[in-house]
Each structure stands twice: as structure tokens, then as C-alpha cells.
Predict the 3D structure of the following.
Amino acid sequence: MKIEQLKITVGQVYEGWRNDAEEGVSGFGGLLDVRPKYQREFVYKDRQRDEVVRTVRKGFPLNVIYWCRVRREDGSEGWEVLDGQQRTVSICEYVDGSFSVDGRYFHNLPADERRKILDYPLLVYGCEGGEEEKLEWFRVVNIAGEKLTEQELLNAVYAGPWLASAKRFFSRTGGPAATLASHLMKGAPIRQEVLETVLLWAARAEGIEEPDGDAVREFMARHQNDADAKPLWAWFRRCVDWVETTFYVRRREMKGLPWGLLYLQHGKRKLDPDRLEKELQRLMADDDVTRKAGVYEYLLTGEERALSIRAFDKSTARAAWERQKHACAACGAVLPFERMQADHVVPWSEGGRTVPENCRMVCAACNLKKGAQET
């Protein structure tokens, strides 16, 4: 791992300055991606931004800024800002005349003060090395300011044509993935949350079974040198098509479900969309189902726990315990209320409701035995 201190001034970073919304922010004569395309937006508040400028104007030191050397989309080498993006944007946007501080724009300052800002030395450390080394270092230095997400750290390590292509599909506000599946996906594309979710699903599709973060990392390592991410996009579209044809009525409860994982498990099954829609309508109207989003998983897997069936309240349970004279309805053991559990006489799956007349009290052992039998 090579880490070196770079002698860089504000003026050098500002050379060729370009701030083009989601298309990215660049400087240093076009060699530095201050904010690569479709990554985090500028998030400093005005007060924080202004304090950075005041610090530079007074000649006080700023915190360390970290750059990493990357291979760019066109095959050339350049730099990306790993940590210090907000400070860099604050200073260069001030020099660019985008805002004033204490009633003075950059062009309002005397020539000597403008020169002082442009000659201000930034404390920059640049690094280059292997993937493992960079990722370990990035995690160590990611300790202050607006922290990078895990996916943003991985993006810095596995930069290249494939990742640039994947970002075009999944990391743009209003981009292809957002246009196609905003009703299914949670998270902000520009913060890489949609990309991270899709990469995890795709990793599982390739049989990568490591924990979530490691699975995404392994998938990115496998595909870093691919020419583009079109196969990933095609797989995602097939997943969305399956959801749209299987559950053809859009509901807000669909947003944020693990659709890619459900597609992997059930995408080849022969399902009846009309029957599923009737069941959806019934379960969505069932007051005992407290987790409506779980209806989709329940219909595919049969796992009742996904529904979070409404439990009997304490007063109903206590009334049943008194009615049973403190005895377990299954084995007859007399126990304190605290050692008993409320249970449906007629199970919910067989039409039983969570109402007082369908409540009985059983001991934990009998309740566990009943659950095992039902399973």
C-alpha cells in the first residue's frame, strides 16, 4: 500500500472546476473526481460550509483530505476524493462565486486575499494499492464528517467500467432503475442504497452465501473488470417483470420487500396471479394481520410469522385465565398467570379470530407442542 502526502493548493484543485449536479463534480485539471457521478450529493449546511471558508481565509488548518488513485471509465488514471468532499466543494464553490460569506463573495475580496485563498495548502494524502489494502485503509480513515456508507467504500475500491455502467442503471435519481421500480425499491439511488440492494440479490443469484456485505464485495470483485453491467440490468428487469406479472395490482406495501430473493426462491413456480390477488384482498382487509407487507411473503412461503398476527391483549388473556380457574386448557396444570400464554382455540389459519371467545390459556410447554404439530 502506497500512501503519500500531496502538495496541493486550493487553486490547483479549482483548476478546471466543474459541478454538474448528478453528473459529478471534478477539478484538478479534470484529474480529480470530487464527487464521482451519481454518488452522494452536497450535504453541508450553510453554517458548516461558511465555517470552512472562514478557516481558509484565516489561514487556519483544515482536517486531512484523502484521495485514492483510480482507473477511470475511459481507461486513464486519476484521483477520487475519499474523505473531504464537503470541504473541497465548499471552498471551490466559494471561489467559483456560488455564495457569499459574511457579505463578501470571492470576487469582492482584495487581490491579496483572493491570492491567499488560492495559495492555501490543503493537507492531502493519496493512496494506491491492492483492493484489500485500500478497503482496510478506507475504513480506518472514514472517521469524521459525513461518513461514507459501506457501499460507497466498496465503490472506491472496485472502480472501473463495470461499476460506472452499474451506476448509470442504479444510482441516478430518475434513472432506469428508479423509473422501472421505484414502487418496489427503498433507499436513495444517489446514496448507492438501490445499487447495494440489487448487488446483494445478484450475489445470491450467483450462489454467493457470505454475509450481506461480504457477498456484495465478492460479487463486485468478480465483475470489476467486466465491460459493462448490462447482464446485471437484464437480471433486475426479469425480477421486476416477475413481480409485476405475479402481483399485478400495485400497493404501497410492496415497496422495500426483498423481491430479488423472493424471485430466486419462487420465480420458477407456476403461480395463479388471480388467486393471489383474491387472497391479497382478503388478507389486507383482515384486522388480525398487523404487518400488511408480510402478506406477499406469506402467500409465497406459507410462513404465518410474516403476518405478525394480532395477539390477545392482557385483559382478554386474564379473563380467560380466570374463566379456566387458572388451569392450562390443554394439560390441566394450575399455574400463575405469568406462566401462561394466550392461544387461539381455533387457529387463525383455520379462520379463528383474535376475539375473547376464541381465547384460551395454556402453559408454555403445551403451546410449544401445539406449534410444532401445526408446523
In short: The chain is about 45% helix and 15% strand. The chain has a mean pLDDT of 90. The CA atoms of residues 291 and 324 lie 31 Å apart.
